[in-house]
Design brief:
alpha+beta; 6-stranded mixed beta sheet
Length: 809
């Protein structure tokens, strides 16, 4: 990137980390503005206890935490360490939690984190303060530890200053001037700063900054209790701030760290204490720093009892000080990162804990300078929330729910309880009548299975795999019955929630799409094609479908709001091209299965005679009285039809198809059966089996690349990546034990060496075994290694089906 005028708002650990890494990338014209003093600013950095538990079920959060640890270690010097590598122990007081720790050991291997299961006795050996009699064991991560963010900030700021960065403390941002949807100037209490890039790192004050440019920053500040004990007898001889491992007891929603001769105790056990941004004072307005609210002792009575039970030495010591420190929570528990689609040049790095701070700064700098981060940040992108999710009523209640569940045992199919019933397809009433079990997808109420299909369980039970334990949670045997039935007959699936639907129209639309995508999209009118969008470093942004309706009119199906914002941001400002989002006005149904063609032909023998259709044909026709855009193609390896119409016509279309399909044993099927059918057909899914860290060659989908095109985004980087060969390979494996089903993210091992991890998993009735997609080290394939999957501390042999994925459709 050329030198640009960069203004960072906020000099906490995130703002300083971003300035530090931008400086390391060679950027010179950087200004950091802070309303409080430098550098104990009064935000979360000032009071955070500094615990770094790296391991998460999220790959991106784990990686950001690991990068933070490495950064803080590099910034450490003997007399003023920024990180104490004392390790961590997560204890289990219930059998369920101990089993979950075994699962987490496998995830740790997948993400490259060393982790060990300890017996109660081994936990006590690591930390003599623990009462080993009340626990089943623990999870030990040697590389975890305590961060000293203010020390790290001081060193990062010193480096940034040496590169020319200017820091202004006690400077309040009063406004941001925007011209033609681009940032131009940051107005402050000491004057104006011209800016090409503004990065909002203001922590829980972020929503105030967002309001200045009309950008919603959907975070909820919540107060969280932290207490420091008096000195413990057991720690009387300690002279270092921390030598004992961190301890986390998620069964009681508490964590513990040594503070010289005492213990710091954090509790998520208490009632949620949300704080309105308007209630948070500026620095200096009160005696306490703005990020601290008055302690509420009544909320600490039960947590103190639980703390004493786990660490008995606390009973005699008692506690001397407590705070309610404010932290930021979001609707999905992920940070808010990236450039807003509303205002060009306005970037956000918000809702970030110390745990992930330096990692975020590193990735933000790469993103701004190189056009893309090396780590996939799609799940953190500020643009991931559609308009419905930007409502305070939505994100505040969902954020509070995330606070309440922060230490729960999380299941991949568990759905949110709050902020539901936000979006409905026109089929919702019919689905309720059929006994749909709903989950939420992008705000939509989406059927997972139908209780009305329960009689099918009796029909197929001799062929079905009955799940047990972890994999049987949020599951029903009806899912399996629906999968088997559709494989023999036909199923109708509501796909309204599955994709964003965009219309691109205007002179220059074709040239725009040619530059945006990897393949030749100059297709005949009435045809559809699959193609990739890449970022500037040739990572897969998304696999999209493009339908050409007219010479300069195209319909695009992309994965979600992030991908839609990517398309929108690349339309030139001076262009006559228009983009319209039809997601909320167009509904979709997918009809698949061996009887699907017969059902469509019985609707209208002339219109749906297969002699008049080829794969990827698209026609705008009437089905009965309903105007429908009909697509004939292979969907997730299964031949079938997709039909799209407006919401007012959706219900008649559903009824027509269901009534016509009744003689052919058509059923309404849920999303879980559809996903199982996808995996059975060996079709990879964008965002699930590959993402922006991968290129098309690594996932064996290079048939969607046309290098003869003069140019497209990421082409030069893609050619370079192709020459250097793949870093990973996406493959399909079958589990040799026919009764075993796994859930995803489990490690793949060759001997005792971790060589990859599972991206998605299911059960194939046609093959009679579990099927998984996995990202593997290519060397493991070249060596024809014997592979195994680790699931809840057990090993299951796996075999590569083949090294070539069928095309995803």
């Amino acid at each position: 990137m050329d030198q640009k005028r960069i203004v960072i708002i906020g000099a906490g650990v995130v703002g300083c980390s971003t300035a530090y890494y931008l400086s390391k990338q060679g950027q010179k014209n950087i200004t950091v503005i802070e309303q409080g003093p430098l550098f104990e600013t009064g935000g979360s950095t000032s009071h955070a206890p500094g615990l770094v538990f790296q391991l998460s079920t999220s790959k991106v959060l784990t990686t950001l935490a690991s990068q933070t640890v490495e950064a803080f270690k590099e910034l450490s010097i003997d007399e003023a360490s920024s990180f104490y590598s004392v390790g961590s122990i997560e204890v289990a007081q219930t059998p369920e939690r101990f089993e979950d720790l075994k699962r987490k050991v496998g995830i740790a291997k997948s993400w490259g984190i060393e982790a060990l299961i300890l017996s109660p006795e081994e936990c006590v050996e690591k930390c003599a303060l623990i009462n080993g009699e009340i626990i089943y064991g623990g999870l030990y991560v040697p590389s975890d530890g305590i961060a000293k963010p203010l020390r790290a900030v001081d060193k990062m700021a010193s480096f940034a200053k040496s590169c020319g960065t200017q820091f202004f403390g006690h400077t309040e941002v009063t406004g941001i001037h925007v011209v033609n949807d681009e940032v131009k100037t940051v107005e402050t209490s000491i004057g104006s700063f011209e800016a090409d890039v503004v990065i909002c790192c203001a922590g829980f004050w972020g929503p105030r900054i967002g309001e200045m440019v009309g950008v919603t920053i959907p975070l909820q500040p919540i107060a969280h209790q932290y207490v420091i004990s008096n000195d413990l007898v057991e720690l009387a001889n300690e002279i270092e701030e921390v030598t004992a491992p961190l301890v986390r007891d998620q069964d009681t929603s508490m964590y513990f760290r040594q503070v010289f001769n005492g213990i710091g105790i954090g509790s998520y056990q208490h009632r949620p204490l949300p704080v309105e941004v308007s209630e948070i004072s500026k620095y200096g307005e009160t005696k306490e720093m703005p990020s601290v609210k008055p302690f509420t002792p009544e909320d600490f009575e039960k947590p103190w009892e639980d703390a004493v039970e786990l660490i008995p030495g606390l009973e005699k010591a008692g506690w001397k000080k407590g705070i309610n420190g404010i932290f930021s929570f979001t609707p999905d528990g992920m940070p808010l990162l990236g450039e807003s689609k509303k205002v060009r040049g306005f970037w956000v790095a918000e809702a970030i804990w110390v745990t992930h701070s330096a990692g975020v700064g590193k990735q933000m700098a790469e993103w701004i300078v190189n056009g893309a981060p090396t780590l996939d940040l799609e799940l953190c992108d500020i643009n991931r929330f559609d308009i419905y999710a930007q409502s305070p009523a939505f994100y505040k209640s969902r954020s509070v729910e995330n606070y309440e569940k922060v230490y729960d045992i999380h299941h991949p199919f568990e759905s949110a309880d709050t902020s539901r019933n936000m979006r409905f397809s026109p089929y919702f009433g019919r689905q309720q009548t059929l006994g749909a079990y709903f989950s939420e997808t992008s705000g939509w109420e989406q059927p997972q299975w139908y209780e009305g299909n329960a009689p099918l369980v009796t029909t197929y039970e001799d062929s079905m795999l009955m799940r047990k334990g972890w994999e049987a949670r949020y599951w029903s045997p009806i899912i399996e019955a629906e999968q088997l039935h559709v494989s023999q007959y036909a199923g109708l699936f509501d796909v309204t929630a599955s994709k964003k639907r965009l219309e691109i129209n205007g002179v220059g639309a074709l040239d725009f799409l040619q530059e945006l995508t990897t393949s030749n999209v100059d297709i005949p009118i009435g045809q559809m094609t699959n193609t990739f969008m890449l970022n500037k470093i040739a990572g897969i942004k998304d696999e999209i479908k493009i339908i050409r309706l007219k010479e300069n009119k195209f319909f695009i199906f992309c994965s979600g709001a992030v991908e839609a914002s990517w398309i929108e941001k690349h339309i030139p400002l001076s262009s006559s091209i228009s983009i319209n989002d039809h997601t909320s006005g167009v509904c979709g149904l997918r009809l698949i299965g061996p009887k699907a063609n017969e059902i469509m032909e019985s609707l209208d023998k002339m219109k749906f005679n297969l002699a008049n259709w080829q794969l990827k044909n698209v026609k705008e026709i009437y089905v009965g009285n309903v105007p429908v855009t009909v697509v004939y193609d292979i969907f997730d390896g299964i031949e079938g039809w997709e039909l799209f119409t407006t919401f007012d016509q959706g219900l008649p279309l559903w009824d027509l198809l269901m009534n016509t399909g009744n003689p052919f044993h058509l059923i309404a099927g849920g999303a879980r059966a559809l996903e199982s059918l996808r995996i059975n057909s060996l079709s990879a899914r964008s965002g699930k089996d590959f993402w922006s860290e991968h290129d098309p060659y690594e996932v064996d989908l290079d048939h969607m690349i046309d290098l003869t095109k003069p140019s497209f985004i990421g082409k030069e980087a893609l050619v370079n990546r192709k020459e250097h060969g793949p870093k990973v390979s996406l493959v399909k494996l079958m589990i040799k034990e026919p009764s075993v089903v796994v859930m995803g993210y489990e490690p793949i091992l060759s001997g005792d060496k971790v060589v990859g991890f599972i991206t998605s998993a299911g059960y194939s009735y046609s093959k009679g075994c579990g099927i998984v997609f996995a990202m593997l080290n290519p060397e493991a394939l070249h060596q024809n290694s014997e592979l195994s999957i680790e699931y809840f501390d057990k090993r299951y042999e796996a075999q590569v089906i083949n090294n070539t994925l069928v095309s995803s459709k």
